[in-house]
Amino acid sequence: MNASRTPEPGDLLRALVARAGEGRPFALAVVLKADGSTPCKAGAKAIVDAEGAIHGTIGGGRVEAETQRRAAEILGAGRALVLDFDLESGTVDRGDPICGGAMRILIDPGAAGHRAAYELAAATRDRRGRGVLLTTVAGAEPRDVTVEFLPEETIPDDLGFPGAESVRAALRREAAALFVSERAEVLVEPLSPKPVLVIVGGGHVGQALAAQAGLVGFDLVVIDDRPEFTRPELFPDGTATRCGPIGEEVARFPFDADTYVVIATRGHRHDAEALAACLRRPAAYVGMIGSRRKVAMMRKEFVDAGRSTRVEIDRVYAPIGLDIGSVTVPEIAASVVAQLIAVRRCGTAPRILDRHGHS
To answer: Which listed site, 10, 84, 136, 209, has its alpha carbon 20 to 30 Å from 93?
Structure first.
């Protein structure tokens, strides 16, 4: 399939809230379930207006085209519809992509009536909160659709179907799931804030890293003690920049389990200040650029001076990145971003080892 053009979930939620406030008719297409090699996964959404124009995507191709057509048809009736697609049946001569698998799509022309739920979800996401969006589809055609957003701290133990533990499990996995009973289908969509990547050092590597990491879903913060390397125009839109003494700025930044740190300053002293400010603090990832020799020297300095234990210093990914033979600055940035993705999605990542077996 062609790569999808799915907006970030937060952007789609904000677009939904805005559309609901405009008073013009629209329908929301939601992927309830996707099996096999499908272009979009459960929870993907797209807004379809009365002319059939689409904002967002549910994967393109004949699935999206048919969904757009049916959405425009049912807008006047205001009745929700569920469509099932068998993607094994596409044909090459018609230009249909043949992915395999199956998709179940909800078309909800009453989405504007769920504005309060979408607004709460968007606001929770904006303040870096977590929660679940529950879309319940009941009855035969026409379907009855209800939407509710539950911030994580308000999920009740007596939630009922599909049950509080199932909902919390989906939130932990950060993966949408469809639960089916005799009476209804409930799509559970976890909403979590983007992870934050703190780039310590706004030079060429930091700039290349920001450009690539922003594309894969990280919120970006750049720290440097040189004003010329914290200029907003050097980095993707929305990047936060902090200019000041490196160790102090890193120490002041609030770390949590979704914080990733890459240390790429211009020198050994600044790297050491940044690293000292990261150790013994919660973070999903701390990595430092440097040669094997430099990393070994700094590891010894920190342990010998009592600034860290061996266990603490061994948490640091250094030398940084995946061992892909990278040479140029963009290649180095690509190797680092790949390692960040591995840690985010798998919990750990391969390391570049020195001759003593340390990363």
So the answer is: 84
